[in-house]
Every structure is written in C-alpha cells, then in structure tokens.
Structure to design on (752 residues):
C-alpha cells in the first residue's frame, strides 16, 4: 500500500534531514492513545515538539492556540472525523497552510482520494512504520519550508516586479515626455527653418553656402537670380560659374583674393559682375569659413550684396566733390591734383613740360549786373564750352576755380609756343560774340601763363605764378595773355612788401597831395587842379601812386586812403578859396577808384566833407577811370545821379584806354571826358591819333561833356587841342604835379 503513495520529487533528503534539527511543532490527532504515544515518542526523539489531541474538536482548539507546523490526523474518530477537521482547517486562512498528513487504517483508494481532495498533504496507512512517518513528516515540513521560501521568493519577486514595473512606468513616462519634447523641438526647428527660409527668400542679398573642399555649392537663396540674372541651377551645376560672371578686369584679383580664405578665414571684396543682358553691376562679396566644435572647417558661407546704387551715389559724390556744379568742369581740387601729378611726372622726366593758364574774364560783374545772374550763369557755361573747344588733346584739363576764374593745364608740350597758341586761340574765339538763348554778349579775358620747370615743388606755386601773370595781363589793359617770368614774382614780392608798409603809411603821415594844374584852353587861365597822391616811403623814397594804388585797391586800404585824399583836397581848395577870391571858380579834381564808388556811404562822406569845409559841390570833380566806370551796375548809376544832384562834377579818366560801350556811356551823368595821355603823346598833325582825338571831342560834345586832354607836353600838342575845340589841358607843358605851397603860389600869381 505504501508504495502506492508517491512521494513528491522535492525536496531532497538533505533538506529533510536538516529539518529534523529545528524545533518544529507537530500536532498528532488520534483517538487511540497507543498511536499517540508511539508517534509522539518517535517524533520527539527527532527533536520535534509534540502536541497531541484525542479528538477533532480538541485538535481544532489546539490549532487555535498554537499553530503547529504539521498535523498528523487520524480519519476515523468518534465525534468528528479527520476529513472534517481537515476541511475546517483548510477553510480558514490562518490554518489552511498547515500541512496535514492523514494516518488511517482505511486503505481504500477512494479514502485516499478523498483525503487529498480535502486538502491533505499525504496519506499514511495504518499500521505505519515509524521511519516512514518520520520521513514523510520531514518531507512535508521541508516541502512546507520550501513552499514558504518559494512564496517569499515569489513575494520578493512580485515586489521586484512591481518595483520594476513602476520603474518602467516612470521610464516610459520620461520617454513619453522626451518624445513630446523632441517632437516639440523638431516642430520648433521646422518652424524656425521655415522662418529662416522665408527671411532668406525675402532679403535682397545673396546668401550662399559651399562645401569647403569639394567646391560645391550647397545653398543659394532666391536673391541670386535677381542680382545675377541667371537661374540658380547654373550655380549648382558649375561651381566656377560665379567666377565666370565676374567682370574680366576684376576676375583675376578676386580669384587671387579668394585663394587666401583657408589661411585668413574670411575674404571681403568688391567687384563687378556681368549680367546676361550685359548690364554691369557692382557687388560686395563677404565669405568666411564655418567651423565645427573641434575646429574643423565644415563650410564656406557668403553674402553677396548689390552695391551698384551705392557705388553710383559714391561716384556721384566723388564727381561732385571734384567738379563745378554749374559748368561740370573739374573744380580747384581736381585741377590742383592734376597739376600735382604733372609736376611729379616732370620731376622724373626732364623732357616733359607743361603749362598752367589762369583765365579771368574781364568785366564779368557787368554781365551779372546788367543781365542778371541767370544770364551770368549761362554765360559762364558758354565760356566753359568755349575753353574746352580750344584745348588740344585729351591730356589737357580745363577747370573752373570759382566766379569768373578758369584754369587750364596744357599737358605735355614741346615748346612754350604751344601754350601761347592755345591762349591765342582762346582770345580770338572770345572776340566773337557769345550767343546765349536770349542775349548776345561780348566777352574778353585776361590770361596768365606759367610754364613748368624744375624749380617748382608744388602745384600752388604754379597757380600762384599763373595768377600773377594774369594780374599783369589785367593791369596792362585786359583782353590779353602774359607769360609769367621770375621778375614778375619779384615785383609781386616787392608789392607785398609795399602792401605791409602801406598799412602804416596813413598813421605815420607818409602821404602828401601834389596838385597838377588844369588849364582852360579857351582862356589860357588856371581852371583847377588834379589832386595826386604821393607816398614818402621811409626807405624807398617817393613811391608812385601807379604802384601802390592798385595794391591799396586789392587790400581794401584804398577806402581809408581815399577818405584822406578827399578830406585833404577839399580842405586845401577850401583854404585857397578863403584866401583868394578868384579861387572860387577853381575846380579840384579828385581820383576815385571803383571800390570807393561802390562804397555804401560815399554820399554821406561827401556831404560831410562839403559841410565841414564849406565848399560847394560844384568845386569838386570826381575822376573815375573809364574801365572802372564800365564795371559798375545799375545801383552805382543811381548813386552817380545823386552826385549830380549835389552839383558834384563827374569825369571819365583815361578815356580811350579801355573800350567803352558808347551806348552804356551815355547812361552815366558825366560832365567831363579826360582823353588818355597815350593819344595825346602820339598825336601829330594828320596822324591817326589826331582823328581819334577829334572824334572823342565831337562825341563828348554831342553827349554834352567837356574835354580835358591829359599829358600835354608840348606847345604843338596844346595848339592842336585848342584847334580841335578841347576845353582843358593838363600836362608837363604847363606844370608837373606840385606841392601845395607851389600850387598856392601859382594861384597867387594868377590873381595878381
Ligand atoms: P591819372 O589820374 O591819370 O593822373 C595823371 C597822371 O599823369 C599823373 O601821374 C600825372 O603825374 C601824370 N602826368 C600828368 N601830366 C603828364 C605829362 O605831361 N606827361 C606824363 N608822362 N605824365 C603826366 P601820377 O601822379 O603818377 O598818378 C598816376 C595815377 O595814379 C593817376 O592817373 C591816378 O589814376 C592814380 N592816382 C594818383 N593819385 C590818386 C589818388 O589820390 N587817388 C586815386 N584813387 N588814384 C590816384
Ligand atoms: Mg586822374
Ligand atoms: Mg588820367
């Protein structure tokens, strides 16, 4: 029978043996005391604690007090059988795990099945062998222990699984978060890329990227088509294409500059490109290397900007800075730069020679005053054109310095005559009338010419000398050219020395008035005097007014000097008038320069001097040279009318020296015409000059003027003038200019 019960495979006997040593509690339930005793003895001998119960009820009570590790349960018992006890124990959670081994005399297989169904762990048939019971008990205990262990392990495992699951859930959550984050980042990246692309598409500059070694473009924005005029594909297909569209003159420079990028890290250049429609555009190209974190070059990026408009504006600015806005000619800066270049070249090439011309229009102010500034501007533009047409080759430069001043650089001449020829050409072209849209104007110019030589070290010296020569041309009567020579410079130096001395001449009382008698040819009587200034220079002695008056005019000192002359001369005639009754009819001629005439308070000055000296306005006669008279405008004519109203006489001095517009002349309220000395000098009977003088006298009379002949040195001259009906004469024949005392003597002798 025993063999029919299969022992579980596990646990092994070792484990079973080891359990014998632990203090396990075993409850033996049997109604037969013998059985209880035998089993109790056997099991306690194995180190187990034994509890015994004689009935099922006692057994259940015992289990309630102390839970045994194993129960040996008899089936057949009087009040409650083993099945019921087992069932009760198994149905309670506190006791269901206690292994129950049935001990029964029932040997039927159904009893055994029932026992196992009730939850029994084993079944031992009576009569039993103690050894078998022992081994089965130990086995069940071991089994229980291992079940316990397994349960613990299971629990532990479950705990770990739970922990793991939790951990996994957390990781999952984290992962989910990360995925969301990544998705968000990717979305942000996409949005930012889209934004970047839209920005790049909308900007006007070309933005590009290139592979650093393969020289292959990676990226171009849309602007490339707009600026270059070619489809973007062209640039991707041929990495050299961008180079091919560079203007031929710039290409090599850019190629060389570009090669340095690996060494320099960046290249910035400006150059021209040629579009398919052949339009040339300027671009600025800035390219730079892009590195990764380890410092390796990963890309070349670049920006190309269309700077054509900027360049044009810049060119215009440069052009404006170097050109005269009215005529479009080079201005002083550009001209001086060209002269400087020519000078440098001539220093290196001894054969090379050039000339500088200084051209100043004569009487330009008159054009402005009479015709207005608009015509004045048109006139200057016409002159600019005319000068340009007189140049020889492309090397020559005509410039406008300002106002009516022009300059010409005559480049690379073999001989001085080449420059003179140009000056001649200019002067002869100027002889022709200049036809403006609404006016025809006659022009004239004074030209100073200087030829380069090794002594010149800077351009300003050249211009200065041309200017000196031009002034000489002016003082010699305008409408001509003068070639500069060193002597002129020295004279100029002398003049500037005089200029500084002149500043002190008034306060040091170095001036004196001389008086030259003017004789009436009708009565042969003294008619008056011309006051002529003399300067007693402390070192140079007597300096001629022809030398210092022009200087005083230039510096403006003429106003103070003129005031002194006016006061002195009026004072003198007033003194003589009070001394000599006859002197009442004498006239005092006083020379006035154009600056004095233009002076705003001239009339007040005259009124004051007339008031202080008590002389009548008719006593003084103001002499104005023909040329300065011609330079005056409408405003001055009105002023001269005012003089007339005060009975002050007006005289045109040096008539015939310049050329007057006769129609212009009659507009001035002039009383007297003084024929220039040069006509009188060359006057001889039957000669041409005689006829000129005759004509002047007729003209003067026709215009209701009387005539004074200057520079009469001989009796013959006097008598011819008398015959021609000239009213007055002045000259060495009668008297040189004399000091006041001598003049007074002359008045006295006339009266006696
Ligand atoms: P001007 O007004 O034509 O004066 C006449 C000049 O001719 C004087 O020269 C006089 O000395 C000179 N002269 C007179 N008779 C003869 C003659 O028979 N033969 C020769 N060869 N010469 C004669 P001066 O005094 O040297 O004056 C020269 C110029 O200086 C004057 O020419 C005048 O334009 C200017 N000037 C003189 N004094 C004054 C002044 O007080 N104020 C101004 N603004 N200019 C003056
Ligand atoms: Mg005079
Ligand atoms: Mg004169």
């Amino acid at each position: 029978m025993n063999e029919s019960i299969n022992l579980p495979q596990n646990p092994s006997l070792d484990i079973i043996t080891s359990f014998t040593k632990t203090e396990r509690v075993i409850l033996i339930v049997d109604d037969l005391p013998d059985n209880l005793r035998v089993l109790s003895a056997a099991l306690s001998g194995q180190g187990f604690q034994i509890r015994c119960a004689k009935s099922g009820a006692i057994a259940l009570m015992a289990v309630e007090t102390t839970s045994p590790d194993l129960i040996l349960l008899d089936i057949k018992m009087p009040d409650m059988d083993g099945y019921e006890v087992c069932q009760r124990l198994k149905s309670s959670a506190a006791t269901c795990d206690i292994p129950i081994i049935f001990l029964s005399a029932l040997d039927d297989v159904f009893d055994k099945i029932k026992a196992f169904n009730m939850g029994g762990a084993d079944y031992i048939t009576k009569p039993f062998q103690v050894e078998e019971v022992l081994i089965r008990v130990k086995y069940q205990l071991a089994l229980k222990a291992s079940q316990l262990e397994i349960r613990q392990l299971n629990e532990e495992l479950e705990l770990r699984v739970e922990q793991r699951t939790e951990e996994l859930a957390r990781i999952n959550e984290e992962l989910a978060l990360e995925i969301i984050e990544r998705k968000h980042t990717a979305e942000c990246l996409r949005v930012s890329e889209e934004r970047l692309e839209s920005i790049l598409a909308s900007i006007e500059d070309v933005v590009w990227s290139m592979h650093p070694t393969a020289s292959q473009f990676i990226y171009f924005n849309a602007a490339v088509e707009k600026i270059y005029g070619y489809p973007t594909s062209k640039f991707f297909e041929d990495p050299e294409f961008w180079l091919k569209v560079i203007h031929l003159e710039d290409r090599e420079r850019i190629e060389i500059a570009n090669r340095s990028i690996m060494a320099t890290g960046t290249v910035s250049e400006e150059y021209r490109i040629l579009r398919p429609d052949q339009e040339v555009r300027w671009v600025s190209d800035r390219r730079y290397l892009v590195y990764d974190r380890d410092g390796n070059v990963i890309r070349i990026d670049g920006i190309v900007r269309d700077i054509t408009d900027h360049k044009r504006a810049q060119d215009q600015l440069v052009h404006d800075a170097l050109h005269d806005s009215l005529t479009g000619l080079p201005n002083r800066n550009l001209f001086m730069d060209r002269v400087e270049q020519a000078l440098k070249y001539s220093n290196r090439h001894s054969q090379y020679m050039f000339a500088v011309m200084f051209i100043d229009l004569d009487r330009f102010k008159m054009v402005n005053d009479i015709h207005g500034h608009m015509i004045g501007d048109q006139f200057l533009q016409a002159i600019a054109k005319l000068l340009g047409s007189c140049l020889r080759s492309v090397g020559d430069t005509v410039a406008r310095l300002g106002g009516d001043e022009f300059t010409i650089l005559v480049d690379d001449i073999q001989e001085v005559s080449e420059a003179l020829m140009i000056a001649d050409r200019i002067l002869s072209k100027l002889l022709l009338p200049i036809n403006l849209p609404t006016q025809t104007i006659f022009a004239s110019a004074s030209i100073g010419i200087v030829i380069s030589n090794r002594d010149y070290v800077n351009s300003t010296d050249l211009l200065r000398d041309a200017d000196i020569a031009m002034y000489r041309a002016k003082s010699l009567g305008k409408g001509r050219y003068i070639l500069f020579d060193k002597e002129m410079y020295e004279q100029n130096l002398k003049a500037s020395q005089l200029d500084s001395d002149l500043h002190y001449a008034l306060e040091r009382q170095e001036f004196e008035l001389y008086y030259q008698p003017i004789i009436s040819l009708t009565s042969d009587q003294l008619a008056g005097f011309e006051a002529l200034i003399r300067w007693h220079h402390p070192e140079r002695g007597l300096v001629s007014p022809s030398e210092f008056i022009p200087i005083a005019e230039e510096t403006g000192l003429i106003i103070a000097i003129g005031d002194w002359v006016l006061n002195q001369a009026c004072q003198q005639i007033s003194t003589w008038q009070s001394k000599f009754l006859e002197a009442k009819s004498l006239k005092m001629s006083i020379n006035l320069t154009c600056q004095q005439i233009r002076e705003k308070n001239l009339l007040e000055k005259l009124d004051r001097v007339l008031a202080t000296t008590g002389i009548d306005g008719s006593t003084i006669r103001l002499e104005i040279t023909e040329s300065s008279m011609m330079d005056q405008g409408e405003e001055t004519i009105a002023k001269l009318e005012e003089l007339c109203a005060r009975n002050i006489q007006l005289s045109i001095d040096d008539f015939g020296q310049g050329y007057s517009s006769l129609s212009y002349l009659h507009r001035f309220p002039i009383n007297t015409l003084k024929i220039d000395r040069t006509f009188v000098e060359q006057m001889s009977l039957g000669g041409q000059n005689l006829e000129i003088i005759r004509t002047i006298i007729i003209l003067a009379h026709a215009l209701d003027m009387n005539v004074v002949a200057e520079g009469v040195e001989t009796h013959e001259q006097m008598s011819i003038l008398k015959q021609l009906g000239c009213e007055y004469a002045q000259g060495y024949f009668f008297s040189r200019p004399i000091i006041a005392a001598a003049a007074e003597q002359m008045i006295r002798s006339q009266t006696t």
